[in-house]
Here is the input.
Amino acid sequence: MTYLLVGLGNPGPRYAKNRHNVGFMLLDALAARWGAPGFAEKFRGRFTKTRFEQHDVVLLAPLTFMNLSGEAVRPTMQFYDVPLEQVLVLHDELDLPFETLRLKAGGGLAGHNGLKSITAQCGGQGFLRLRVGIGRPPVGTVHDHVLSNFTADEAARLPDVLERGMAMVETVLRVGPEQAMNDLHGA
Here is the structure.
Protein backbone atom coordinates (compact mmCIF):
# COMPACT_ATOMS: atom_id res chain seq x y z
CA MET A 1 0.00 0.00 0.00
CA THR A 2 1.31 3.45 -0.91
CA TYR A 3 0.65 6.54 1.19
CA LEU A 4 1.15 10.12 0.05
CA LEU A 5 2.28 12.52 2.78
CA VAL A 6 1.84 16.15 1.79
CA GLY A 7 3.49 18.88 3.84
CA LEU A 8 1.97 22.30 3.22
CA GLY A 9 3.92 25.55 3.12
CA ASN A 10 5.27 28.25 0.85
CA PRO A 11 8.51 27.78 -1.11
CA GLY A 12 11.64 29.84 -0.67
CA PRO A 13 13.90 31.04 2.15
CA ARG A 14 11.66 34.04 2.90
CA TYR A 15 8.97 31.69 4.26
CA ALA A 16 11.11 28.85 5.61
CA LYS A 17 10.57 29.54 9.32
CA ASN A 18 6.99 30.85 9.07
CA ARG A 19 4.21 29.24 11.07
CA HIS A 20 2.44 28.50 7.76
CA ASN A 21 5.38 26.24 6.83
CA VAL A 22 5.14 23.83 9.73
CA GLY A 23 3.85 21.19 7.28
CA PHE A 24 7.11 21.47 5.31
CA MET A 25 9.08 21.28 8.56
CA LEU A 26 7.31 18.09 9.63
CA LEU A 27 7.70 16.51 6.19
CA ASP A 28 11.44 17.26 6.14
CA ALA A 29 11.82 15.82 9.65
CA LEU A 30 10.09 12.59 8.56
CA ALA A 31 12.30 12.30 5.47
CA ALA A 32 15.41 12.67 7.65
CA ARG A 33 14.12 10.25 10.30
CA TRP A 34 13.35 7.57 7.71
CA GLY A 35 16.57 8.08 5.73
CA ALA A 36 14.65 8.97 2.56
CA PRO A 37 16.64 9.76 -0.58
CA GLY A 38 17.11 13.44 -1.38
CA PHE A 39 14.15 15.38 -2.69
CA ALA A 40 13.76 15.86 -6.45
CA GLU A 41 11.53 18.36 -8.23
CA LYS A 42 8.55 16.98 -10.12
CA PHE A 43 4.77 17.35 -9.99
CA ARG A 44 5.19 21.08 -9.23
CA GLY A 45 6.76 20.14 -5.91
CA ARG A 46 9.72 18.53 -4.15
CA PHE A 47 9.21 14.85 -3.57
CA THR A 48 10.95 11.71 -2.46
CA LYS A 49 9.84 8.12 -2.03
CA THR A 50 10.81 5.77 0.77
CA ARG A 51 9.44 2.95 2.89
CA PHE A 52 8.16 2.93 6.43
CA GLU A 53 7.68 -0.59 7.74
CA GLN A 54 5.42 -2.34 5.19
CA HIS A 55 4.34 0.79 3.26
CA ASP A 56 5.72 2.72 0.33
CA VAL A 57 5.53 6.40 1.24
CA VAL A 58 5.73 9.35 -1.13
CA LEU A 59 6.59 12.64 0.59
CA LEU A 60 5.55 15.79 -1.28
CA ALA A 61 6.09 19.48 -0.57
CA PRO A 62 4.15 21.49 -3.17
CA LEU A 63 6.15 24.39 -4.63
CA THR A 64 3.05 26.10 -5.96
CA PHE A 65 2.55 28.34 -2.91
CA MET A 66 -0.07 27.37 -0.36
CA ASN A 67 -3.17 28.50 -2.25
CA LEU A 68 -2.44 26.20 -5.22
CA SER A 69 -1.24 23.10 -3.33
CA GLY A 70 -3.77 20.84 -5.06
CA GLU A 71 -2.03 21.48 -8.38
CA ALA A 72 0.94 19.48 -7.06
CA VAL A 73 -1.04 16.89 -5.09
CA ARG A 74 -3.34 15.76 -7.92
CA PRO A 75 -0.61 14.74 -10.43
CA THR A 76 1.37 13.03 -7.66
CA MET A 77 -1.68 11.01 -6.63
CA GLN A 78 -2.31 10.07 -10.26
CA PHE A 79 1.30 9.09 -10.98
CA TYR A 80 1.59 6.86 -7.89
CA ASP A 81 -2.05 5.68 -8.06
CA VAL A 82 -2.76 6.80 -4.49
CA PRO A 83 -6.45 7.04 -3.56
CA LEU A 84 -7.62 10.09 -1.63
CA GLU A 85 -8.09 8.10 1.60
CA GLN A 86 -4.34 7.26 1.58
CA VAL A 87 -3.32 10.92 1.45
CA LEU A 88 -2.21 12.51 4.73
CA VAL A 89 -1.84 16.29 4.67
CA LEU A 90 0.40 17.93 7.30
CA HIS A 91 -0.62 21.55 7.89
CA ASP A 92 -0.78 24.49 10.26
CA GLU A 93 -4.02 25.05 12.16
CA LEU A 94 -5.11 28.41 13.59
CA ASP A 95 -7.96 26.89 15.56
CA LEU A 96 -5.64 24.81 17.74
CA PRO A 97 -3.28 26.29 20.35
CA PHE A 98 0.43 26.07 19.63
CA GLU A 99 1.79 22.57 20.38
CA THR A 100 -1.61 20.87 19.94
CA LEU A 101 -1.74 18.11 17.32
CA ARG A 102 -4.88 16.45 15.99
CA LEU A 103 -5.68 13.91 13.30
CA LYS A 104 -8.83 14.60 11.35
CA ALA A 105 -10.57 12.89 8.45
CA GLY A 106 -12.71 15.11 6.23
CA GLY A 107 -14.72 17.88 7.84
CA GLY A 108 -14.52 21.64 7.52
CA LEU A 109 -11.48 23.36 6.08
CA ALA A 110 -11.56 26.35 8.49
CA GLY A 111 -10.67 28.77 5.70
CA HIS A 112 -7.33 27.06 4.99
CA ASN A 113 -6.58 27.83 1.34
CA GLY A 114 -4.13 24.96 0.91
CA LEU A 115 -6.80 22.48 2.00
CA LYS A 116 -9.38 24.19 -0.22
CA SER A 117 -7.08 23.75 -3.22
CA ILE A 118 -6.47 20.06 -2.48
CA THR A 119 -10.21 19.48 -2.04
CA ALA A 120 -11.01 21.20 -5.35
CA GLN A 121 -8.23 19.52 -7.35
CA CYS A 122 -8.41 16.02 -5.88
CA GLY A 123 -12.11 15.27 -5.72
CA GLY A 124 -13.20 15.96 -2.18
CA GLN A 125 -12.22 15.98 1.46
CA GLY A 126 -11.62 12.24 1.90
CA PHE A 127 -7.98 12.76 2.88
CA LEU A 128 -6.59 12.57 6.39
CA ARG A 129 -5.10 15.66 8.01
CA LEU A 130 -2.56 16.13 10.75
CA ARG A 131 -3.39 19.56 12.12
CA VAL A 132 -0.45 21.27 13.83
CA GLY A 133 -1.67 24.04 16.12
CA ILE A 134 -0.16 27.49 15.66
CA GLY A 135 -2.87 29.38 17.58
CA ARG A 136 -4.66 32.56 16.61
CA PRO A 137 -2.92 35.90 16.93
CA PRO A 138 -3.78 37.87 20.08
CA VAL A 139 -3.74 41.04 17.96
CA GLY A 140 -3.18 41.73 14.28
CA THR A 141 -4.32 39.88 11.23
CA VAL A 142 -4.36 36.16 10.59
CA HIS A 143 -2.37 36.74 7.36
CA ASP A 144 0.45 38.42 9.29
CA HIS A 145 0.37 35.69 11.96
CA VAL A 146 0.68 32.70 9.61
CA LEU A 147 3.40 34.41 7.58
CA SER A 148 5.47 35.31 10.63
CA ASN A 149 8.16 33.18 12.20
CA PHE A 150 7.63 31.28 15.42
CA THR A 151 8.61 33.29 18.49
CA ALA A 152 11.88 32.37 20.22
CA ASP A 153 9.91 30.49 22.91
CA GLU A 154 7.85 28.61 20.31
CA ALA A 155 10.95 27.81 18.24
CA ALA A 156 12.56 26.28 21.33
CA ARG A 157 9.51 24.02 21.81
CA LEU A 158 9.03 23.22 18.12
CA PRO A 159 11.36 20.16 18.05
CA ASP A 160 9.05 18.43 20.56
CA VAL A 161 6.00 19.32 18.45
CA LEU A 162 7.66 17.85 15.36
CA GLU A 163 8.71 14.73 17.29
CA ARG A 164 5.13 14.14 18.44
CA GLY A 165 3.87 14.82 14.90
CA MET A 166 6.26 12.23 13.47
CA ALA A 167 5.08 9.68 16.02
CA MET A 168 1.45 10.36 15.04
CA VAL A 169 2.22 9.88 11.33
CA GLU A 170 3.98 6.61 12.14
CA THR A 171 0.95 5.46 14.14
CA VAL A 172 -1.28 6.13 11.12
CA LEU A 173 1.02 4.06 8.91
CA ARG A 174 1.22 1.23 11.44
CA VAL A 175 -2.46 0.83 12.34
CA GLY A 176 -4.44 2.83 9.74
CA PRO A 177 -6.22 6.17 10.05
CA GLU A 178 -9.32 5.09 11.99
CA GLN A 179 -7.43 3.10 14.60
CA ALA A 180 -4.82 5.89 14.89
CA MET A 181 -7.53 8.47 15.62
CA ASN A 182 -9.06 6.15 18.23
CA ASP A 183 -5.68 5.41 19.81
CA LEU A 184 -4.49 9.02 19.82
CA HIS A 185 -7.69 10.94 20.55
CA GLY A 186 -9.98 8.37 22.13
CA ALA A 187 -12.49 9.01 19.32
Summary: The mean pLDDT is 94.
